[in-house]
Amino acid sequence: MKPVFEKPFTQQEPISNTVIERIGEILRSGRLHRYNTVEGEKAEATLLEQEYAEWQGAKYCLACTSGGYALQLAMRASGLQQGDTVLANAYTLAPVPGAIHAAGGKPIFVEIGDDWRINTDDLATKAESTGAKFLMLSHMRGHIADMETIEAICEKHDISMIEDCAHTMGATWNGKRSGNFGKVAAFSTQTYKHINSGEGGLLTTDDPFIAARAIVMSGSYMLYSNHGAAPDAKIFDQIKLVSPNMSGRMDNLRAALIRGQLGELDENIARWNKRYQALEKAVSGSPNIMTVKRPQQEHYVGSSFQFRPKLDPKQLPKLLENCSNRGVDIKWFGAEEPKAFTSRYDSWEYLGAQPTLPKTLEVLATTCDIRVPLTFDEGDCTLIGEIILDEVNALSA
């Protein structure tokens, strides 16, 4: 009988007792709102902003409701106006174009390569032809592109880079943290990201005006001095009356969840990468499966794994069915209709008709994705890889 994998792909590790005790203290205080403090007290959200800014190596940090909300704030606080063009890699998740649309921007998608990263040649061409002043760069599924080349393109064309780091919290390129390349960055602490607070977002920047506008826009009213990693009051004096309140504050419960996990993140990255490498090793010996060699400059976080079986795209539904029957949950980015969290750029019809991106469609036609939760061990990942390999080989025969 063929082996079957029996663990769920959506199960996360439990929250530690220390964090649970801290949350109990907050609940007993009744002061869940970040601005509801007593004299001499720093709110949990304030402490989180201080600690995350220090950990990230950024001057300023804002805690808010979600990663998608942080993306919207990042664009608005960077000066995006209604109808402005925003370049964005075509391989991303639906909240990214949703955030661009909600902020008033008009996305123009950039091709990806066989390695799932943004195609820098196409980026340079579209930066020249569109006159765009904004780039929403998604480090999609944890794959970081050539950041020096992207920085040079942005500098040449006076483009403000906004980094979507939902999948790269803790990753680096040439030793520099993801999120520290652009004008502003957004991170997610949704359950399936690298820190689990159910929902949550963080915005970081070194620009005091972007930080101040984001803080006021997030719903600080005139309580911006209560933030833990904010610019000087004189900056707020220049923007506080012309920045709208679009409430999206983080509460103290979620801040406590994030603070309690931040100190474990570096260790967890090492744990994820061991699992990722076990999975990669199990499938990489097959001529029927394409994986991507990670660039030497990239220190990644292997919380998900992507591969491309060398099959006709019409065979992909059968591959997913066969693997599912053996307990392996694979998501496919090439389906014509969106399913679960996967969708293609041509399915976001609210954006209007989009130019065809042939290379992106070719790559996504066989792009498969699986989560790598820390509730798996390395042996589990080896078994998952062996099941995938077995089923791909069977369909290739």
Q: What is the CATH C level class of the largest domain, in words?
A: Alpha Beta
**What's the structural domain tally?**
2
CATH architecture tag of the largest domain: 3-Layer(aba) Sandwich
What percentage of residues falls in helices of 4 or more residues? Answer: 25-40%
- CATH homologous superfamily descriptor of the largest domain: Type I PLP-dependent aspartate aminotransferase-like (Major domain)
Q: What share of residues are in beta strands?
A: 5-15%
Number of strands: 14
Mean pLDDT: 97
Order of helices and strands: HHEHEHEHEHEEEEEHHHHEEEHEHEH
- What is the CA–CA distance across the termini? 20 Å
Q: Could you give a short account of the major beta sheet? A: 7 strands, mixed
Radius of gyration: 21 Å
- The order of strands across the largest sheet is 1-9-8-5-4-2-3
CATH topology of the largest domain, by name, is Aspartate Aminotransferase, domain 2
Brief rundown of the structure:
With 397 residues, this protein is an alpha/beta fold.
Q: What is the element layout, followed by pairings?
A:
Blueprint: H1 17-29, H2 44-56, E1 60-64, H3 67-77, E2 85-89, H4 95-102, E3 106-110, H5 120-130, E4 134-138, H6 147-156, E5 160-164, E6 172-173, E7 176-177, E8 184-188, E9 201-205, H7 208-220, H8 233-239, H9 252-262, H10 265-283, E10 289-290, E11 298-299, E12 304-309, H11 316-325, E13 331-332, H12 358-364, E14 368-371, H13 378-396
Parallel strand pairs: 2-3, 2-4, 4-5, 5-8
Antiparallel strand pairs: 1-9, 6-7, 6-11, 8-9, 10-12, 12-14, 13-14
